[in-house]
Amino acid sequence: MKNKRKGKEIASDPSDEDDDHDASHSSDDEESESDENSTVNVDFEFFDPKPEDYHGVKLLLQNYLDDCEWDIAGFVNLILGQTRVGTIVKAGGDDPIGLITALNIRRYKELPSIQAIRDFLVKRAKNSPELSKLQALWQSDKNVGLLVSQRLMNVPLELCPPLHDAIFDEIAWATEDESSAELRESFKFQQYLIQTRVYKEKVPKKQPVNEDGNFIFIKPEDELFFQLSSWHFTFPVQAETMLAHQTKGLQLLGLVMAVSAKQIKAFRSKLKGLVC
């Protein structure tokens, strides 16, 4: 298996940072402007999941099931225990600032954390015409990957393509390199289930509601998954992720999507074009 640890530097040249003589004679206004224009070099690195990432990963996933109480500890340990498929993003070797993984629903369906996710989604889909599709997917004998991607809002968008290249490359490698035929087979995903969040403009009560229109995607990849999805549904969530003044007139929604594995090649190509 290839070593998937990677690094990426987001940087630009500081403004006159090493010209001490000029800096000493500049005005306060010029110094302030220089500070605003300068950029700090930051290395973003991809790591295999490790037990010491527990608290950071748990923090990233704290609102994964909105404000529900569930076995988040078991879910975090499941993610960290799958070291060959999954990536933790760090900046300068500090706490995790992002993660991505894909978990086989059928393989782990008896675990309390996976059962909690199923129950959460089924409850939110109870009034959706897609409920039967969600239930069928969860009960399917096929390999369905729960694609989990969480990261802080200040993580550069430039990391999206390499981060998704990492997970889908690892999935492909796992189908060849895992130690047993059962494990290799478990990564031959036919569909992916994605649970994420979007914003939508609030519609006055007297106006008709377009359930599928005018989404504001928080993560650029989610817009592509949405375009390529075979079905989806939304539901209102309680936990807010942005300041109230930033979301005035917007409603935060959970978005659940099913995406065929056959669409991943197109997704990767579109993501590079969207971000790069």
The CATH homologous superfamily name equals Gcn5-related N-acetyltransferase (GNAT)
Question: Would you tell me the structural class of the helices and strands?
Answer: alpha+beta
- Summed up, the domain count is 1
CA(first)-CA(last) distance: 28 Å
Mean pLDDT: 85
CATH topology: Aminopeptidase
**Share of residues in strands:** 15-25%
Query: What Rg is obtained from the alpha carbons, in whole angstroms?
Result: 21 Å
Number of strands: 9
User: Could you spell the SSE succession in H and E letters?
Assistant: EHHEHHEEHHHEHHEEHEEH
Q: The biggest beta sheet, please?
A: 9 strands, mixed
Number of helices: 11
InterPro entries: BCP1_family
Family: Belongs to the BCP1 family.
Protein name: Protein BCCIP homolog
Region (Disordered): 1-41
In short:
The chain is built from eleven helices and nine strands. A hairpin with a 4-residue loop joins strand 3 and strand 4.
Summary tags:
276 residues, alpha+beta, Aminopeptidase, nine-stranded mixed β-sheet, 11 helices, disordered N terminus, Protein BCCIP homolog, BCP1_family
How would you describe this protein?
The chain has 276 residues and is α+β, with helices and mostly antiparallel strands. It has one domain (6-13, 41-275): Aminopeptidase, CATH 3.40.630. Helices cover 37% and strands 23% of the residues. The protein contains eleven helices and nine strands. The longest helix is centred in the middle third of the chain and has 18 residues, at 160-177. It starts with 5 loop residues before the first strand and ends with a helix. This is Protein BCCIP homolog. It comes from Selaginella moellendorffii.
